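So, can you check these tokens?
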Amino acid sequence: MWYETTDEKFHLQINPHPLGQTTHYRATVIATRYGLSLDAVGFYDLTLGENDDDLRQCAHCLQPTLSRSNFKSKEWRKRFDSQ
């Protein structure tokens, strides 16, 4: 099971981790649009709370690394080139 955006060359993927529960997840970006390999960004752990404020806080914490706007900067993408 996973959740992902629909863009085939840049999408956010979120997987339950471990499988079968509904609180702990791992998120990554697959950014082949920008020439990064499928596993270049790596996974980031997150824990979802029970309300919308918790979800917003989780998204805010992931934004510095997984936000689509970051990947528009060639200099910023270089941090993943050697991983």
